[in-house]
Amino acid sequence: MSIATERFDAVETLVRQACEDSIRPPLAPIIECMTLPNSDNIDRPVIRIAVERSLFVHQSPGGLSTSGRLIETSDPAGSVDQAFSAA
To answer: Which of 18, 26, 28, 31 has fewest C-beta within 10 Å?
Structure first.
């Protein structure tokens, strides 16, 4: 899936906010904007997101706790779906 170039800033902001505001303790993602060729060898814009390994257990909405218990959330993917809908 590629991201519309004009949506790069919005998607990067969404990812950064999710990592910093929704996850405890917060993550520090490495976000890189780049282009990759599609199946027709046409360069498409994408955002690469890397998260370094951590010494901590992180809690996130809709994820699993270390005991395997589901962490409830009210809107698991609505914001992400909106950010990628213009792609």
So the answer is: 28
